[in-house]
Protein backbone atom coordinates (compact mmCIF):
# COMPACT_ATOMS: atom_id res chain seq x y z
CA UNK A 1 0.00 0.00 0.00
CA UNK A 2 1.51 3.34 -1.02
CA UNK A 3 1.19 6.66 0.82
CA UNK A 4 -1.81 7.81 -1.21
CA UNK A 5 -3.73 4.62 -0.48
CA UNK A 6 -2.89 4.87 3.24
CA UNK A 7 -4.03 8.49 3.36
CA UNK A 8 -7.42 7.54 1.92
CA UNK A 9 -7.94 5.09 4.82
CA UNK A 10 -7.34 7.69 7.55
CA UNK A 11 -10.45 9.00 9.27
CA UNK A 12 -11.08 11.23 12.25
CA UNK A 13 -12.68 9.30 15.07
CA UNK A 14 -13.94 12.47 16.71
CA UNK A 15 -13.93 15.87 15.02
CA UNK A 16 -11.87 18.41 16.93
CA UNK A 17 -13.86 21.43 18.06
CA UNK A 18 -12.52 24.79 16.96
CA UNK A 19 -10.29 26.50 19.52
CA UNK A 20 -11.48 29.98 18.67
CA UNK A 21 -14.75 31.77 18.05
CA UNK A 22 -15.01 34.39 15.33
CA UNK A 23 -16.22 37.84 16.41
CA UNK A 24 -16.76 41.06 14.53
CA UNK A 25 -15.84 44.48 15.86
CA UNK A 26 -16.30 47.98 14.52
CA UNK A 27 -13.38 50.39 14.84
CA UNK A 28 -13.12 54.02 13.92
CA UNK A 29 -10.92 54.82 10.94
CA UNK A 30 -8.25 56.50 13.03
CA UNK A 31 -8.03 53.56 15.48
CA UNK A 32 -7.86 51.14 12.56
CA UNK A 33 -5.13 53.28 11.01
CA UNK A 34 -3.14 53.08 14.24
CA UNK A 35 -3.50 49.30 14.25
CA UNK A 36 -2.37 49.10 10.62
CA UNK A 37 0.62 51.34 11.40
CA UNK A 38 1.68 49.01 14.25
CA UNK A 39 1.37 46.04 11.88
CA UNK A 40 3.26 47.82 9.09
CA UNK A 41 6.08 48.74 11.50
CA UNK A 42 6.41 45.09 12.50
CA UNK A 43 5.12 45.25 16.07
CA UNK A 44 2.37 42.74 15.19
CA UNK A 45 2.04 40.22 12.40
CA UNK A 46 -1.50 41.30 11.46
CA UNK A 47 -4.63 43.01 12.79
CA UNK A 48 -5.81 39.86 14.55
CA UNK A 49 -2.49 39.52 16.38
CA UNK A 50 -2.82 43.12 17.59
CA UNK A 51 -6.42 42.63 18.76
CA UNK A 52 -5.68 39.33 20.54
CA UNK A 53 -2.69 40.91 22.30
CA UNK A 54 -4.77 43.91 23.37
CA UNK A 55 -7.50 41.63 24.75
CA UNK A 56 -5.00 39.44 26.61
CA UNK A 57 -3.36 42.55 28.11
CA UNK A 58 -6.72 43.80 29.37
CA UNK A 59 -7.63 40.39 30.80
CA UNK A 60 -4.27 40.22 32.55
CA UNK A 61 -4.73 43.74 33.88
CA UNK A 62 -8.07 42.74 35.42
CA UNK A 63 -7.12 39.14 36.32
CA UNK A 64 -7.93 39.48 40.03
CA UNK A 65 -11.41 40.82 39.36
CA UNK A 66 -12.07 38.13 36.75
CA UNK A 67 -10.87 35.39 39.11
CA UNK A 68 -13.08 36.64 41.95
CA UNK A 69 -16.11 36.96 39.69
CA UNK A 70 -15.55 33.48 38.23
CA UNK A 71 -15.42 31.96 41.73
CA UNK A 72 -18.40 33.99 42.98
CA UNK A 73 -20.57 32.91 40.04
CA UNK A 74 -19.48 29.25 40.25
CA UNK A 75 -18.32 29.13 36.63
CA UNK A 76 -16.49 26.18 35.12
CA UNK A 77 -13.46 27.65 33.38
CA UNK A 78 -12.31 26.45 29.95
CA UNK A 79 -13.85 23.69 27.86
CA UNK A 80 -16.77 21.68 29.26
CA UNK A 81 -18.24 18.83 27.23
CA UNK A 82 -21.63 17.32 28.01
CA UNK A 83 -22.09 13.89 26.45
CA UNK A 84 -25.27 11.93 25.97
CA UNK A 85 -24.01 9.56 28.69
CA UNK A 86 -23.61 12.53 31.09
CA UNK A 87 -27.18 13.63 30.50
CA UNK A 88 -28.57 10.10 30.68
CA UNK A 89 -26.77 9.59 34.02
CA UNK A 90 -28.31 12.82 35.35
CA UNK A 91 -31.72 11.69 34.15
CA UNK A 92 -31.35 8.29 35.86
CA UNK A 93 -30.30 10.05 39.08
CA UNK A 94 -33.27 12.43 38.84
CA UNK A 95 -30.95 15.43 38.71
CA UNK A 96 -31.15 18.59 36.64
CA UNK A 97 -27.93 20.18 35.40
CA UNK A 98 -27.09 23.86 35.66
CA UNK A 99 -24.51 24.65 32.99
CA UNK A 100 -22.33 27.61 34.05
CA UNK A 101 -19.26 27.96 31.85
CA UNK A 102 -16.73 30.66 31.10
CA UNK A 103 -15.18 29.43 27.85
CA UNK A 104 -16.76 26.79 25.63
CA UNK A 105 -19.70 24.60 26.62
CA UNK A 106 -20.31 21.80 24.16
CA UNK A 107 -23.34 19.51 24.11
CA UNK A 108 -22.69 16.37 22.06
CA UNK A 109 -24.26 16.07 18.62
CA UNK A 110 -26.10 12.86 19.59
CA UNK A 111 -28.03 14.56 22.43
CA UNK A 112 -31.69 14.91 21.49
CA UNK A 113 -33.71 18.03 22.20
CA UNK A 114 -35.97 15.98 24.50
CA UNK A 115 -33.03 14.67 26.54
CA UNK A 116 -31.59 18.17 26.84
CA UNK A 117 -34.91 19.61 28.08
CA UNK A 118 -35.35 16.74 30.52
CA UNK A 119 -31.91 17.17 32.10
CA UNK A 120 -30.72 20.78 31.74
CA UNK A 121 -32.38 23.31 34.04
CA UNK A 122 -30.33 26.35 33.02
CA UNK A 123 -27.56 27.42 30.67
CA UNK A 124 -25.26 30.36 31.29
CA UNK A 125 -22.23 30.53 29.01
CA UNK A 126 -19.78 33.40 28.81
CA UNK A 127 -17.97 32.52 25.62
CA UNK A 128 -19.59 30.04 23.25
CA UNK A 129 -22.17 27.26 23.35
CA UNK A 130 -21.85 24.52 20.76
CA UNK A 131 -24.92 22.34 20.32
CA UNK A 132 -27.24 21.31 17.55
CA UNK A 133 -29.81 23.89 16.46
CA UNK A 134 -32.56 21.63 17.86
CA UNK A 135 -30.92 21.48 21.31
CA UNK A 136 -30.30 25.24 21.34
CA UNK A 137 -33.95 25.84 20.45
CA UNK A 138 -35.13 23.41 23.13
CA UNK A 139 -33.06 25.24 25.76
CA UNK A 140 -33.72 28.79 24.57
CA UNK A 141 -36.04 29.61 27.49
CA UNK A 142 -33.40 28.32 29.92
CA UNK A 143 -30.45 30.17 28.44
CA UNK A 144 -29.18 33.40 29.99
Q: How many DSSP H or I helices? A: 7
Radius of gyration: 21 Å
Structural class by sheet pairing and helices: alpha/beta
How many beta-strand segments? 3
Give the overall shape. Answer: elongated
Following the backbone from N to C, one meets helices and strands in this order, namely: HHHHEHEHEH
Strand percentage: 15-25%
Count of discrete domains: 2
The profile of the biggest β sheet is: 3 strands, parallel
Share of helix among residues? 40-55%
Question: Which terms summarize this structure?
Answer:
Ribbon_hlx_hlx; Transcriptional regulator, contains Arc/MetJ-type RHH (Ribbon-helix-helix) DNA-binding domain; RHH_8; 20% strand; alpha/beta; 46% helix; 2 domains; single chain; 144 residues; Arc_rbn_hlx_hlx; 3-stranded parallel β-sheet
What do you see in this structure?
This is Transcriptional regulator, contains Arc/MetJ-type RHH (Ribbon-helix-helix) DNA-binding domain. InterPro entries: Arc_rbn_hlx_hlx, RHH_8, Ribbon_hlx_hlx. One of its GO terms (biological process) is regulation of DNA-templated transcription. The chain is an alpha/beta fold and 144 residues long. It folds into two domains: 29-61; 68-142, no CATH class. 46% of the residues lie in helices and 20% in strands. It contains seven helices and three strands; from the N terminus they run ααααβαβαβα. The protein has helices at residues 3-8, 29-40, 47-61, 63-72, 84-93, 113-119, 133-138, and strands at residues 76-82, 97-107, 120-130. Strands 1-2-3 form a three-stranded parallel beta sheet, covered by helices on one side. The longest helix has 15 residues, at 47-61. It starts with a helix and ends in a 6-residue tail after the last helix. The mean pLDDT is 90.
